[in-house]
Amino acid sequence: MSWLKGMYNGFNEFFLTVVDRRELIQMAFIEHLWLSFVSISIACLISLPLGIWIARAKRFAEPMIGVTAVLQTIPSLALFGFLVPLIGIGTNTASSLWIIR
Question: Which of 24, 28, 29, 20 is nearest to 12 (CA)?
């Protein structure tokens, strides 16, 4: 039963840390929501008109699907590694990853 006591102490320490850093966690959560909203909105503004255009222009559909398939197969961490030297570390990089992925 000593493992149970150790697990309880671990959870207790975790929750105390969360309570102590509540404001930081709330700010990070709000920033995450904002980054997600902006990035997904930009992605929709790009992808919806592009999808409508591709549906009408059949000859561009296959190359465009090929490009998007390649972008989707690149893992996010590798894509992050490519983007950091180009645009640096920060919200621009995070937003770019959300838009591309």
Answer: 20
